[in-house]
Amino acid sequence: MLLKKSNLLHNKTIQICGSKSISNRLLILHFLFRNIKIENTSDAQDTFLLQQALESKKDVIDVHHAGTAMRFLTAYFAQKEGRKVVLTGSERMLQRPIKDLVEALLALGADIQYLAEEGYPPLKITGKKLNRDEVVISSGISSQFITALMLIAPKLENGLTIHLEGKITSRPYLEMTLKTLTSIGVSCEFDGRSIKISPLDFDQKLSNIFYFEVESDWSSASYYYAMAAIGRGIINLRNFQAHSYQADSRIKEIYWDFFGINTISDTQEHRISICPEPFVFPEIIKIDMNDCPDIVQTVCVTAAALQIPFEITGLETLKIKETDRLQALHKELQKIGCETEITENSIASVRFFEPEEPIFIKTYNDHRMAMSFAPYCLKKEITIEHENVVEKSYPKFWEDLEEILDPIN
Question: Could you give the dihedral angle defined by the CA atoms of residues 292, 297, 302 and 305, in that order, rounded to the nearest 10 degrees?
Answer without folding.
Answer: 160
